[in-house]
Amino acid sequence: MSAIFILLGASLVVAVGFLIAFIWSVRNGQYDDDYTPSVRMLFDETIVQPKERAGGKSTTDNNKNTN
Amino acid sequence: MVSSVQTETKLICFHCGEECKDNSIREDEKVFCCQGCQLVYDLLNKNGLCVYYDLNENPGLNQKEKLRSDKFAFLDDNQVKQKLYSFTDGKQSRLTFYLPQMHCSSCIWLLENMHKLNPAIITSRVDFPRKTLDILYAEDLISLRQLAELLTRIGYEPHISLKDLDEKQIKKVDRGRLLRLGVAGFCFGNIMMLSLPEYLSGGAITDLNLRHLFSWLILALSLPVFLYSATEFYNSAWQGLKQRFLNIDTPIVLAIGITFFRSAFEIITGTGAGYLDSMAGIVFFMLAGRIFQDYTYQSLYFDRDFKSYFPISVCRKKNGQETYVPVSDIKPGDRILIRSHELIPVDGILFYGKALIDYSFVTGESVPVEKTIGEILYAGGKQTGGELELEVIKDVSQSYLTQLWNNGIFKEKTEKRASFIHALSRHFTWGLLGLALFTSCFWIIRDPSRAFNAVTAILIVACPCALLLSATFTNGHIMRVLGKNGLYLKNASTIEALASADRIIFDKTGTITHGGSSKITYEGSVLSPSDKQLIRSLARQSNHALSRSIVADLPDSLPLQIASYKEYPGRGAQGLIGNRNVLLGSSDFLGIAAKKDADFSKVYVQIDKNISGCFMIKNSYRNGMEDLIRVLRHKYTVSLLSGDNDSEKNHLIEVFGSADHLSFDQSPEDKLRYIKKLQDNGHRAIMIGDGLNDSGALMQSDAGIALSDNINNFSPACDAILSSDRFNDLPRFLAFAKAGKKIILLSFAISLLYNGIGLALAVQGTLSPVVAAILMPLSSLSILTFTAITSKLSAKNIGLKLR
């Protein structure tokens, strides 16, 4: 029976992990624009993104998170 | 008869895809319709950006209209700059431009590769749904004005309005709602998983430890749903109660609260498992419905006022110097310059120049008015002649045009009529409360121990969430279908306003007629320049719409003195100019036998018996307008409110059926009052207009529809924007909105069936969590499927596109 307790704990940890990932991605603005990235990824050249970006909120790098 | 088959090869502009007429330009084996398009191509070619043309065919924007060189001069002003920036450190600045012309993937590619055009641009990033470009650039290498001009040169003229300076206009997504949905989904899923053992074991898990663990975990998981995800419903219910209005969210909050507390009580005392799985599910589905319903067109704006129309800056003349200053800085006494095709932003006295002001924007009157020095020019007019100098007499906020916005209707967010959903939910709730009372009395007498269970179970079932679900999902489907067909709604309550209207009111200029000038062809004896001058001089005297079209069509010439002028209303005009007798009018006025032509208005001309001909003026009415009005008249009372004069009255009476439904020379306030009067008499009105002069009426009406040739252009504040090429589909849209109400009622009836089963059990006090857990998702899911299928079917029946 004790296996159930362990499994239950493990499943909740995984689930909470995904919840946190979801909250982070929404706050990060990844759901703000659900169209442009789909077009952008089809362009051949990658757009130059300077590493140090000045200014306010940075727009997200959508190509990194596919999960 | 053998007809010669002509094979026409149309020359298409490589840049913008428009047909090249004469004097097209060729370069690199490519054809361009105008120099502007060629210049853009050159610029992109030079910078190795021709991928632009590979991604889509002819992706460019037509460059025929030239930009005034000083249009963006105001961007040199520091104050303006600071207001537009979202960030600046003196070297690098970041801001967001709204570029309504953006339309395809080529646009995205080009705009995101701006740094190749000009190295001063560090990054540029497109948000396509909102049609915005977020741009970071080095300020010491390129000025903001040059940046705006560069964008304009490649075809994306940024739209910057006075309103942008007051407040940030770029829409932000409501991330909170998405978070609440995500959290509710997470909790719902996990609660269901933890409840599964209980369902399978037939109601009670034998292992006490496990049972406790599961139920306490469920309680813990339900807390975020109760305390966070459902807050939207608490807020809405509270807002309703504050205004003494029992909206649909009130019974929902009641049900959520009772479910939570009863379940928490059961779990803590160890007497049962509670209904927390149902509660989490309900909240999750209802939130999903709300998000689905409140689908927004992110690039469209429904709440524009005059500030969006006005130029942001104006050229002020002071001590012989001309500087561009923000319009809001203009004070009475200032001298300002208005160039050709500029809008007059403030009331002023004409000081210098020949004024020919087009007030169609404000009044709907389509003919430019001549004004002489010393006369007052009102804000909102567009100069069509040369340069003017004005002395300002009022602040921008107090000028004639803006007074309309001081009307109360624009101040308060008027609560439009409450939806039938609320009324329905109220009956539903009262009915169930009565039932609950009856049941509790019954059980208190027979078996008091079951009373508590039975009553709370009824209240849980009493939640009109099925009604809310059917409404939100149906509305979401309807909005999407209408959007695909060219009618863009501001929000879901517009659907009901469209469905329940019994009056439709049209504006004339720009709504049932085309914008722009009408096409005129001439047939008959050849006219010499002096003949044309004669005709023009005579036509100038008449105020008739057709005469005015002829005046506009003939070349500019000095008006001649007319010795004897006589106008025969509705027939024609006659005049003696010099020694020549000129007649202008209908066929029977000139005694000519001619056939009627539906598409053309014919004006016959005769000079001294020897010259005669006919002007054929293409009707400026929209194609199919007559049929549309006739169709609508079967079900609605249709009327017309025009700011123009009544020169087309005779024809319009034929179309609208009676002169009672036509009103001419209406000021913007008159239009607003007309709608208000209808509403006071218990009617529900749809107003269809296009201009700023209709904005009061659009606002006052139950559903104000702004007609627009290009939906990304600027339309006045309204409830819906209709693309003008779908104007004739109006009856279909209205029929579909009506079908929506039926779908909601039907799906509600289906959910009542489930509620009935639940109630039957609840009244007996035997509603087990298992049955509740099965009933809840079943009813929700079947409603989702039902609304999706029925709304698609009825759209198909009515003849609307689904894709």
How would you characterize the overall build of this protein?
- The complex is a heterodimer of chains A (67) and B (803).
- By secondary structure, chain A is mainly alpha-helical.
- Chain A has a domain at 2-29.
- In chain A, 46% of the residues lie in helices and 0% in strands.
- Chain A is built from 2 helices and no strands.
- Chain A has helices at 2-27, 36-40.
- The two termini of chain A are 34 Å apart.
- The model of chain A is unreliable at 47-67 (pLDDT under 50).
- Chain B has 803 residues and is an alpha+beta fold.
- Among the domains of chain B are: 73-166, 2-Layer Sandwich (Alpha-Beta Plaits), CATH 3.30.70.100; 175-291; 310-406, Calcium-transporting ATPase, cytoplasmic transduction domain A (Distorted Sandwich), CATH 2.70.150; 486-514 and 624-736, Rossmann fold, CATH 3.40.50.1000; 520-618, 3-Layer(aba) Sandwich (Calcium-transporting ATPase, cytoplasmic domain N), CATH 3.40.1110.10.
- In chain B, the strands form 6 sheets. In chain B, strands 16-28-27-26-17-24-25 form a 7-stranded mixed β-sheet, sandwiched between helices. In chain B, strands 8-7-9-15-10-13 form a 6-stranded antiparallel β-sheet, with no helix packed on it.
- In chain B, β24 (637-641), α26 and β25 (662-663) form a beta-alpha-beta unit.
- In chain B, α9 (208-229) runs parallel beside α12.
- Residues 1-8 of chain B have low confidence and may be disordered.
